[in-house]
C-alpha cells in the first residue's frame, strides 16, 4: 500500500521564541497538531488527498489563531476579504476563490468551484452567489471579529500603511494556512487559504488563489502550498517553479525547494516559505524567514510540529 503523508502550515515570518508567550506557543502547537492529525486520519481511512487537505485547512480556518477564515485580518474598510485555492495532482483540476467576505470556510468554496463549475477562479459577489447556490455555510461579520486582529488594524487604519499579519512593526507574520497530502492511491493535492493583509485596499489579492504561484499540485512532481509576501510569490511563480525544476531539470524535491525559497526569492527580497511533498511521500518545508508554523505526519510516524528555525 502507498505510504500516506500530509504537511500543513499556518504562516511564516518573524516568529521567534521571544515573540510568543508559553501560552501562545502551546495554543499554536495544539492547533497545528489537531489539524494535521485530522487530515492524516482521512488518509489512513482510505480517503483522498483532496479530502485530507480540505479538512486540514478547514481546521485551521476555524481557529482565530491563523489569518484565514475565522481569524482573517481586517481590510481598510474594516471588513474581511478572503482567498483560497485547492488543486488535484492527478487531474490538474483546480478551484480558487478571491475576495469573498461572508464564507465561513473559503477552502470549501474553492472545492465546490473545482467540482461543480467549468471555471477555476471566482471572485467577490459572484463567488458568494455560487456559494449560496451550493448551500455552503455563511457567517456574519461578528463571526470573523477577533479582538487581537481588531487592535492590529486599529494601529494603522487611519494611514495608508498595509501590513502583513504581525504583532509589532518589526514582526512580520505572513498569515496564510495550507496543506499538502498524498493518499493511498499515490495522488497528491494542495490547498491554501488566507485573509490577506491587514488594512489592504482596492480588493488586493495575493498569491494564495493563483494556481502556480501560491498553490499547485501535480502527481508527476509535487504538491505545494506557499506562505509569504504574496507579491513576490506571484512574480516568482513559486509553486510552479518548484515543480518545473523537478520535471525539467531532474531536481529532487528538496533541491527544487532550496533553489526557489532560499536562492531565487531571497535574491529579490521575497520572504516566506512553503510546504511540499511528492507522490512517494517525501516532505519538504523550507522557509527563509525567522519561523513558520508547520506540522507533518507520515504513515505511522510521530507527528512533527515546528515553529522556529531550530
From TrEMBL:
InterPro entries: Ntn_hydrolases_N (IPR029055), Peptidase_T2 (IPR000246). One of its GO terms (molecular function) is hydrolase activity, acting on carbon-nitrogen (but not peptide) bonds, in linear amides. It comes from the Bacteria. The active site is at residue 176. Keywords: Autocatalytic cleavage, Hydrolase, Protease. Pfam families: Asparaginase_2. The keyword Translocase does not apply. GO terms for biological process: proteolysis. SUPFAM superfamilies: N-terminal nucleophile aminohydrolases (Ntn hydrolases). Substrate binds at residues 204-207, 227-230. The record marks 175-176 as: Cleavage. This is Isoaspartyl peptidase. It comes from Pontibacter flavimaris.
Amino acid at each position: 500500500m502507498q505510504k500516506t503523508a500530509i504537511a500543513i502550515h499556518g504562516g511564516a515570518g518573524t516568529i521567534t521564541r521571544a515573540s510568543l508567550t508559553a501560552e501562545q506557543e502551546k495554543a499554536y502547537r495544539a492547533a497545528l497538531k489537531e489539524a494535521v492529525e485530522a487530515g492524516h486520519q482521512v488518509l489512513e481511512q482510505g480517503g483522498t488527498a483532496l479530502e485530507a487537505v480540505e479538512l486540514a485547512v478547514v481546521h485551521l480556518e476555524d481557529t482565530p489563531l491563523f489569518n484565514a477564515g475565522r481569524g482573517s485580518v481586517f481590510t481598510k474598510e474594516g471588513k474581511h476579504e478572503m482567498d483560497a485555492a485547492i488543486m488535484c495532482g492527478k487531474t490538474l483540476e483546480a478551484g480558487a476563490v478571491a475576495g469573498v467576505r461572508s464564507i465561513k470556510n473559503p477552502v470549501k468554496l474553492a472545492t465546490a468551484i473545482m467540482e461543480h463549475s467549468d471555471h477555476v477562479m471566482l471572485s467577490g459577489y459572484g463567488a458568494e452567489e455560487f456559494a449560496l447556490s451550493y448551500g455552503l455555510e455563511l457567517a456574519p461579520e461578528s463571526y470573523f471579529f477577533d479582538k487581537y486582529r481588531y487592535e492590529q488594524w486599529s494601529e494603522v487604519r487611519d494611514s495608508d500603511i498595509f501590513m502583513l499579519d504581525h504583532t509589532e512593526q518589526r514582526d512580520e507574520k505572513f498569515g496564510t494556512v495550507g496543506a499538502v497530502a498524498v493518499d493511498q492511491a499515490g495522488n497528491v493535492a494542495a490547498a491554501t487559504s488566507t485573509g490577506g493583509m491587514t488594512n489592504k485596499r482596492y480588493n488586493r489579492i495575493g498569491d494564495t488563489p493563483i494556481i502556480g504561484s501560491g498553490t499547485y499540485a501535480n502527481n508527476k512532481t509535487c504538491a505545494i502550498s506557499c506562505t509569504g509576501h504574496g507579491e513576490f510569490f506571484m512574480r516568482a511563480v513559486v509553486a510552479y517553479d518548484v515543480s518545473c525544476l523537478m520535471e525539467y531539470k531532474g531536481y529532487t524535491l528538496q533541491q527544487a525547494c532550496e533553489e526557489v525559497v532560499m536562492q531565487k526569492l531571497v535574491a529579490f527580497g521575497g520572504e516566506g516559505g512553503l510546504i511540499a511533498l511528492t507522490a512517494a511521500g517525501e516532505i519538504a518545508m523550507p522557509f527563509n524567514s525567522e519561523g513558520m508554523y508547520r506540522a507533518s505526519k507520515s504513515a505511522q510516524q510521530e507527528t512533527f510540529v515546528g515553529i522556529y528555525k531550530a
